[in-house]
């Protein structure tokens, strides 16, 4: 039962973080979006994770796909973690 709640908590937290990453990416469309208090708050939350993907340089012209790749990696890791926790739960 504990593993079920843990899986639910992890899934919801990763979903929320994914939404924050998408909002952070959309802020680039607005002039001064990153300089607002909300933009600075999101930067403190999102940039440590996004910094892991900076060296990949997934820019094609003026479009940077680092955030999209980071979201895909986050979702794949989430699915793998949920699968592992579910298998552990069924073992006991």
Give an overview of the whole structure.
Helix 1 crosses helix 2 (37-50) and helix 1 (2-26) packs antiparallel against helix 3. The mean pLDDT is 92. With 92 residues, this protein is mostly helical. The protein contains three helices and two strands. The protein has one domain. A two-stranded antiparallel ribbon has the order 1-2. Keywords: Cell cycle, Cell division, Membrane, Transmembrane, Transmembrane helix. This is Cell division protein YlmG.
Largest sheet, spatial ordering of strands: 1-2
Largest sheet: 2 strands, antiparallel
The value of Rg in angstroms is 16 Å
Shape: elongated
N-to-C series of helices and strands: HHEEH
As a percent range, the share of helical residues equals over 70%
The percent range for strand residues is: under 5%
As residue ranges, the low-confidence spans are none
Count of spatially separate domains: 1
Rounded average pLDDT = 92
Q: How many individual β-strands?
A: 2
Instruction: State the helix count.
Output: 3
Keywords: Cell cycle, Cell division, Membrane, Transmembrane, Transmembrane helix
Transmembrane segments: 12-30, 65-85
Pfam families: CCB3_YggT
InterPro entries: CCB3/YggT
């Amino acid at each position: 039962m504990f593993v079920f709640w843990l899986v639910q908590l992890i899934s919801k937290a990763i979903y929320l973080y994914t939404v924050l990453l998408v909002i952070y990416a959309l802020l680039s469309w607005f002039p001064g979006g990153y300089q607002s208090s909300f933009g600075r708050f999101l930067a403190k939350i999102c940039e440590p994770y996004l910094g892991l993907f900076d060296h990949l340089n997934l820019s094609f012209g003026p479009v940077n796909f680092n955030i999209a790749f980071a979201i895909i990696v986050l979702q794949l890791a989430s699915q793998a973690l949920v699968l592992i926790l579910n298998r552990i739960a069924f073992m006991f």
